[in-house]
Every structure is written in C-alpha cells, then in structure tokens.
Amino acid sequence: MSDDVMQKVISLCKRRGFVFQSSEIYGGLRSAYDYGPLGVELKRNLMNAWWRDMVHRREDVVGLDASIVMHPRVWEASGHLAGFSDPLVDCKVCKDRFRADHATPAESGASVNLHFADKGRAKVAQALIADQFGVELERRGKELVGATAGDRGYVCPVCGSPFMSEERQFNLMFRTSLGPVDPMGRLANAIEAGEFDGLSGADLRGSIDRITKESAVYLRPETAQAMFVQFSNIQQSMALKVPFGIAQMGKSFRNEITVEHFIFRSCEFEQMEMEFFCEPGTDDTWLDYWKQSRMEWWQKFANDPSKFRLRAHAPDELAHYAKGCYDIEYLYPWGWGELEGVANRTDYDLQKHAKYSGSKLEYFDPVERKRYTPYVIEPAAGATRGVLTYLVDAYFEEEVVTQKGTDVRTVLKLHPQLAPIKVAVLPLVKKNGMPEKAREVVEAFFQRGINAKYDAQHAIGKRYRRHDEIGTPWCLTIDGQTMEDGTITLRDRDSMEQRRISIDNAVQEIEDLLRD
Ligand code: GAP
After folding, report:
1. Taking the model in full, what pTM does it have?
2. Are the C-beta atoms of 314 and 273 separated by less than 8 Å?
3. d(CA 347, CA 374)
C-alpha cells in the first residue's frame, strides 16, 4: 500500500465528513483535528466496542472517568515532569526544529550534501554557512556539497545540514495554571522588584520556573495515572479482589514536536487504557494473556488481520518502569507503526504514588492473609490512531460493471459494528407513499437503538455509491413492490447483492447481522 492511499483516505475523510483540519478557515492548527458527523460516530463506535469488551463483558474490570487536570504531584511521582521529554535540536541553516532521535543518521566524518527547494535558497545557505561557520561549500544547482557530519551521528532531516544547536530536553506536557494566582503578574512583580537582576542562563530559567510552578497544573499526557492514584478508592468501594482491572478512555495531550501522518500522531488524542492489578509472580502469565487478547480484539474488526503484528520490545527499548512490553503494530501505508502497547509496569507506579502521597497503596489478600503491592499489566491503546487504522484497512477501490461499461467504486469496508450508519433506508422515489413508509422503517430502527438514516437525495445508484463510500453496510430500498406486497430490497455493501425481505423482518435481520 502506498502513500497515495493515505492521500485518498485523507481526501475521503474531508469530502465525506469524517475528519477536518481544526480551525481550517483560519489556516488550520498544526496537528489538531475535528471529527465531523461521520468521524464522531466511527470514533464513538470504536471506543464503545472497547468499553463493552473490556468493562461490560468482564467481571474482573471496572471503569473510571477521571479529571484531565490532576494534582501536579501526580506528574512528579510518575516521572513525567522530570523525564517526559524529547531531545530537541535546531538546524542553524534551514531553521527547522526536530527531534534528535528522528533525525537522518550520518556517520561521524562522512561527507554530506545539503539540499534546498531552489538555487536561490541554496545560495543564501551557502553564504550563511561561510559567514557563520567559516566553511566554504561548493554549490551544484540546489545542492551544497563538501560538508562533513559531526560526532552527533545525525544531520538535519530537512536540509541535511550538520550545523545544529545543542540538544535540549523539551517537556511534552501542556502546562497551564489553576486558581486565582496569575503567574504572569507574579513574574512581572518579581522583575520589577529586581529579583532576577544579574541572573542568566539556567539560573534565570530556574527562578522563573519556581515562580510559575506555584500555580502550575498539567493536561494529562496519558489516562493511566488516575487509575493508580484511585487504586485504593476503587478496590475498597467495589470490594474487588486481585486480580482486577481499572479501565479508562478519554483525551490525552502531548506537545508533540513531530506530528505526522494525519491523525496518527497529534497533540490532542484519545486513549483507551486499562491497568490490570495482579499478584507479583503471576505478572508474566497475565502479560501473555493480555497481549494475545488485545491482538485478537484489533484483528476481529479488520478486513486484513495479517496487517497486525505483535513485536516484543528489546531490553534497551523498554520504558524505565517496564519489565516487559509488546507493541501491537499495524502496517500503515508508510510502514509498521504502534497502535497499542501492552506493558508489564511491575509495582513501579503504585510504589511511586505511595511514596509521594504518603498513602498506602497496597492490597490485603483475605484468604492468604498477606499484604502486598500488586503488579500491573497495562494494555494502552490509541483510539484516534485506531480510527485511522480501520479507515486505512477499510479503504478499497473496486472495478464494477455498469450498464455503460465498467466503473470504479470507492468503498469503506468498515466492520458493521464500527460503521457510522448501520443501515440507510431509501425510498425509490419521493412519492406514492414511499417516503412515509421509509420513515416508518427508520423509526423502527431507532426504537431498537440502531443508527439508521433516511436518504432520498439523488438517483438510487448514486445513493448506493455514497453509502458505499461512507461504509454503510446495508441499504434498504422501498419501491413500488413494497407498497403492494410488503417486501423491501436489502443490499449488501461488500457483495453488492440484493435480495427481497419482508419489511416486518427488516429490523430483526439487521440486528442479527450486527451481532458478533
Ligand atoms: N500509559 C502508557 C502510554 O500512554 P504510550 O505508548 O505513550 O503509552 C499509548 O501511548 C497509545 O496511545 C499508543 O500506542 C498510541 O496508540 C497512542 N498515542 C500516543 N501518543 C499519541 C499521539 N501523539 N497521537 C495519537 N495517538 C497517540
């Protein structure tokens, strides 16, 4: 699958109301997206399916909906304040700011060429490099040749330059302030009072940090921490016995430097996470169980399950808190990428929060009469990334035979449980009682909680194509015969086959088809 497919999916998302660029009329906001009328249905269906399978259908998992802004000490304990950062570098030639760990590799001492959009820009860069770094490079059209890579092991991913700033750690959490204290006012007062006089560099930065930190709070960068912080409240209020899980889904925020591939990586996104608390010693077994169970869950809704794989983290890849981790990856148009991580977090988080809060976060086993800190297995998935995954998996262009020859139809073969509209009800013409009959059928679907859509716009063939393109699995057509014998046509999106069924059985038929 090529990047071309990605462009087609993005274009369909906009054309048919799945996903729009945020604030588009103002030029758009980098990496922020709005889920339109069909996108919001798809995202909710995916998240509801996760909730149904992870919470409702399990006796050992309960839910939580915690606040996005939590006590700032949570992020000190979790390590996010100190460690949740990316190494950032500025290219001194093209001014791009990039992540060192995402830069173009280049061996120390290797000769590298710099490349620009046109000759003019290459000339400007040539003069800048000579002036600022005393290095004379030869220009060949849009390229500058003769530079040498330094010890860093990489060059600028945009222009290929080895002329860069030092690496800086950049925290990914969005900071804001809570309460009546205005940090800017406090800062202004401090400057006026001369508190910063004579300070520079790290000292100045440290003093500013101290003042602004007093009222600082953070938008959560993951949903996970609330489940550790509320461990005892939930365990005691629900009288839960280990092993048990706490699940949560909702928004998370990360000030990502590299935003890429449409909704794959964005600054505001949705997660579906579950913390499964188990007795130490049983953790390896539970990690195996959850990695398999989560893999099967993703594959269940896919057209091509072979595009999902489990990849074990190498020891040097593991997060500081993890004893073992598997990524569930999908083969996106640009290559394999992470969709969900299933990690053995040991007792790291509960121990940390116990230490920072002074509260005991332990479990007392009433049968064995012993007290311990449970280990945690965490399946952590991206819901918005899941939406992209299934859009890519569902996108097909198929040659179809028509009365005029052949044609290409675009069809989204979304799993019926995920499809934004389950069934479209189409009166063949807008007369002879057909619209009224169609509306009756739609109402019957609503009565059973099934999202049906009345659609009378354009010729019937065009309506079928429109519903193919937005992934509606079934169309029901009311025609002249319906008015005579009470039958309607049921058309299947994927096979395009049509058969007549009794109008009285329509809701039951669709309900049966929608079942697992
Ligand atoms: N609690 C662990 C945790 O948050 P993570 O691997 O950082 O782990 C889990 O995130 C999942 O969240 C990822 O597998 C991915 O699907 C999704 N995710 C993470 N960052 C994202 C971003 N910037 N945009 C969209 N989805 C993201």
Report:
1. 0.87
2. no
3. 6
